[in-house]
């Protein structure tokens, strides 16, 4: 793979270069019918070293590669100080990776990123993470024939070869599963939920409008505890959590957000969102007032055709009580009864979460995408 021409890599040091960094994907994906352009204003804020939530706990540099004087590749190099505290100081990260199919361009990008990380004492490189495992992350290595769900990544198939040619190897995989079957026995599902809850001193109910703010601190604490054993977990700071919550709050339909309460104390939660990516794709990166109103309307009132079941969290002492199954079934029942939803995306699922994968397969789920984090020594 190669195009020809002189290659130059430089840090993003001006507003003009930042715009080139942000807009490069449009030239990479112009012929890809499944790519969903990011909302440029949101991504610019996320990357802003003064405003972005990541920079509370980390630092980063952005690099652009030019081929024959034109932008041809990009990458971020970043360090996460909280990751250092929890997992040791050896690992640095890369993210926001895009490139034309030219191995020289990719080699030059990673040379710059690794030099920046080496100067900060890092000896291992992992990615892509934009910026952590609870942001958009992973290289798509399976499932290129469909549009990504909300907050998932997408890339050309040739990216994997570009990385493995530079001695990157698999570090960890995350799976996306889909459920498409609407021909189910709803009464049997409801009886199963009743059996799960029978004898348990907990209440399973959906979110009450306006309750998100009241429960935010409880959700924050429970999330960090419940996901602590997961590969690569770094506890979210309150600032990161608030940013994430403000991003998803306008998209929440109360019937697709479930709480498990023990004497009104939160011990479990589950959240699914309508997948707005078909509309986001039409916006082509621009978010006008009209576009924002369309997104809000689709999220709250539009017909649901696809959802992304994003997260389930259960307190450790409640994890063997099948409460996660009860939450999934409640959403499943609601969708079949009240919507025309044709697909539920359940992601991202850590590859070693075998008990949860077994449950999803029992519900008829099929794996349809794999997102891989790579690593190599610096």
Q: State the end-to-end distance.
A: 24 Å
CATH secondary-structure class of the largest domain: Alpha Beta
Biggest pleated sheet: 13 strands, mixed
Tally of distinct domains: 2
- The number of helical elements comes to 12
β content, as a range? 25-35%
The portion of residues assigned to helices is 25-40%
Spell out the helices and strands N to C. Answer: EHHEEHEHEEEEHEHEHHEEHHEHEHE
Concise description?
With 378 residues, this protein is α+β, with helices and mostly antiparallel strands. Helix content is 36%, strand content 28%. It has helices at 15-28, 40-47, 81-87, 103-118, 158-164, 186-197, 211-226, 238-248, 277-283, 289-300, 323-338, 354-362; strands at 7-11, 58-67, 70-80, 91-99, 124-127, 129-130, 136-137, 139-142, 169-179, 203-206, 257-262, 265-274, 306-314, 343-350, 366-377.
Written account of the structure:
- The chain has 378 residues and is an alpha+beta fold.
- It folds into two domains: 7-175, Gcn5-related N-acetyltransferase (GNAT) (Aminopeptidase); 181-341, Aminopeptidase.
- The chain is built from twelve helices and 15 strands.
- The strands form two sheets. Strands 1, 2, 3, 4, 5, 8, 9, 10, 11, 12, 13, 14 and 15 form a 13-stranded mixed beta sheet that branches. A two-stranded antiparallel sheet has the order 6-7.
- Helix 11 links the parallel strand 13 and strand 14 (343-350).
- Helix 6 runs antiparallel to helix 11.
- The mean pLDDT is 96.
């Amino acid at each position: 793979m190669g195009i020809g021409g002189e290659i130059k890599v430089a840090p993003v040091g001006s507003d003009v270069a930042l715009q080139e960094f942000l807009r490069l994907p449009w030239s990479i994906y112009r012929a890809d019918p499944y790519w969903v352009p990011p909302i440029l204003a949101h991504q610019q804020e996320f990357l802003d070293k003064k405003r972005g939530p990541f920079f509370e706990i980390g630092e980063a540099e952005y690099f652009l590669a030019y081929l024959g004087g034109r932008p041809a590749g990009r990458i971020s190099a970043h360090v996460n100080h909280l990751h250092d505290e929890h997992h040791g100081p050896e690992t640095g990260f890369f993210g926001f990776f895009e490139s034309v199919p030219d191995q020289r361009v990719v080699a030059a990008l990673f040379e710059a990123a690794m030099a920046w990380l080496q100067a900060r004492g890092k000896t291992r490189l992992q990615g892509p993470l934009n910026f952590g495992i609870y942001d958009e992350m992973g290289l798509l290595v399976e499932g290129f024939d469909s549009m990504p769900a909300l907050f998932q990544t997408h890339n050309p198939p040739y990216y994997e070869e570009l990385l493995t040619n530079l001695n990157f190897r698999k570090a960890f995989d995350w799976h996306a599963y889909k459920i498409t079957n609407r021909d189910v026995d709803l009464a049997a599902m409801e009886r199963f939920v009743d059996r799960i809850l029978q004898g348990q001193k907990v209440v399973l109910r959906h979110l009450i409008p306006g309750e998100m703010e009241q429960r935010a601190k409880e959700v924050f604490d429970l999330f960090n505890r419940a996901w602590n054993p997961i590969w690569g977990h770094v506890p979210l700071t309150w600032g990161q959590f608030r940013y994430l919550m403000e991003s998803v709050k306008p998209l929440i339909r109360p019937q697709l957000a479930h709480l498990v309460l023990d004497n009104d104390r939160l011990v479990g939660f589950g959240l699914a969102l309508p997948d707005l990516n078909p509309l986001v794709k039409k916006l082509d990166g621009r978010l006008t007032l009209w576009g924002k109103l369309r997104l809000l309307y689709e999220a709250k009132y539009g017909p649901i055709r696809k959802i992304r079941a994003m997260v389930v969290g259960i307190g450790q002492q409640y994890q063997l009580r099948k409460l996660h199954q009860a939450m999934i079934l409640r959403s499943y029942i609601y969708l079949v009864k009240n919507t025309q939803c044709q697909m539920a995306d359940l992601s991202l699922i850590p590859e070693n979460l075998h008990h949860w994968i077994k449950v999803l397969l029992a519900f008829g789920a099929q794996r349809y995408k794999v997102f891989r984090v790579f690593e190599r020594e610096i």
